[in-house]
Amino acid sequence: MSLHRLAVSAVTATIALAACSSTSGPELRASKPVIYVSSARTASDISSCLERMLPSAQTTRNAGSTELLVGPNAWLVTLTPSGYGSTVKVQKSDGEYSGLPEPELRFDIARCTT
Q: Chain centroid to CA 30: how far?
């Protein structure tokens, strides 16, 4: 086996293992919320604040809501506009993630929703 093929095989195996260890989007969305709060701030204001506090977050906007994925599928923050501001729902994957601890995320959510 050539060195190039061996390297390609190693990279493919690493990607496959990483994919197996992360939680999928639908699984994460189905998990029980660990935080569910209302805020008088708009979803876009909260999103901007969280993006500053959590620079590694990946933001997507769909069907009127905004989702921020923090860590490798570790935390999902969903911001939904409401009649008086917005609601914030935070869900956590079942797997262990040593990146952002829950108390720090709670602080960031509290800071950005008030």
A: 13
